[in-house]
Amino acid sequence: MIKKPDQNLPQGSETPDHKRVVVPLLLVLAFMGGVVIYSPELYNMFCAATGYGGTTQRVTQDSGVVLDEQITVRFDATVSKALNWEFKPVQRSMKVRIGETVVAKYTAKNLDKEAIVGSATYNVTPEIAGSYFNKIECFCFTEQRLEAGEQIEMPVSFYVDPEIVTDKSGRRVKEITLSYVFYAKKLPIKAAQMVR
What is the pTM of this model? Predict the structure, then answer.
């Protein structure tokens, strides 16, 4: 049986209006594209606020309370394959009193023949320590530009919040590892021109 178009509908209304379908789809695609583009920043903001995933806290002042209890902080450094840098901690570990503000140092050297801008991501393990590991100053807060062959020393000023000893899981932590991964933020000028 062949169905005849409804005679009461205005002419052309028996086919869907493509604009009503295409425009919402384009809006959904634009929204999804925006989420993908900005998701690292949104995730970092969430982690920085909550300590989720071992993300450390950023603070502006010392704790004001220093306990006699000590904790070992280990330092780890990794460089992405796309970044031709040498990056390492000056010291592999240190014992610090909980609440005491200390400075640890890392070094970075650009092994490339061109200037490169790098950016560091960071976290601590175990994850529970992220909520209590407070950074006052850190090279990871800004991008680092190294000229060809340049080597720099980069400090990180931090303390472990005394509140860690009142946390049921936190008080069992005796060792924290602070890890950084450096990524290339901008390609060297010659390499960027070759990509175009």
Answer: 0.66
